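Entry 14. Structure prediction run on the chain below.
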Amino acid sequence: MQVTVEDLRGMERLHVRAWPAFETAEIDGWLWRYSGGGSLRANSVSTVDFTGDDVTAALDEVEARYRVKGAPARVHTYDASAPMNVVDLLSVRRYGNGDSTLTMVKPVEHAIPPSDIEVFDRATDEWHEVYLGVITENRRAVNARILETIPTPRAFFACRRGGNIVSTALGVADGGRAVVECMATRPESRRNGGAEAVLRALECWAAEKGVRMLGLQVVATNAPAVALYRGLGFAAVATNRFWVRY
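Output returned:
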C-alpha cells in the first residue's frame, strides 16, 4: 500500500497515544515523557512535531527535565521526525544510538476471526500473566500500570488453547488507523500459530471500526517476529531509534 509522510506521522502519533506515559510535558511541540522503569517509549521524547525555532534550547530543557528525575535523556526519532536534522544534532551532543524498531503497516482486510480467540475490554489476570511474563523484569511494574490507562477504542485479545491463554495482543484505534501493542506468546507455545491468530482477530476488530491501516512496531533484530508480520502482509515503512545521553 502507498504510505505518505502524513500516514507515518499519524501512525506515530497513535503509537504515542496508545502507550501513555505517567508524566508528560510539551517542549516546542515535542512530547517529553517519563514513567520510570524500563519502557523506552514511556521514558523518551517523541519527535513527531516541532513548533519551536531553537532546537538547542529544546534539547537543553529535555536534558534538564530528565536530570531532575535522575534519568538519562532519551529521544525517540523516526523517518519523519521534526526538525529533519534532529539526528545530526543529537550526534553532535554525543547521544548514543540505542535500540531500533521498525514500524510496519498493512491495509486492513475484512475476514472471519479465528474461533479460539477471546476479546476483553480490559486486561484480565491471565492476560497479564502471559504478557508480563515475557517482558524484562524492569518493565513489568510500569507496563502493568500503563495498561490501566490505555485509551479507547481499545480491545485486549487472547488466543486460548488447551484451557490456557497462549498469546496476547492489544489493539488501539483512532479514526482510519489502528496499532498493535503487547504481542506476547508463552515460550512453550511459540511457533504454533497463536500470535497469528490474535493478529487476525485484531485486524477483524479494526475493520469493524472502519480502520484502513493497521500498524505495529517490532525490534529490528527480532528476525522471527519480522518474518511473521511480513507473512501476514505487513511491510516496513519507517525505522525508529532511541537515542540516549547519560
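Residues 166 and 189 are 6 Å apart (CA to CA).
Filed with the rest of this week's runs.
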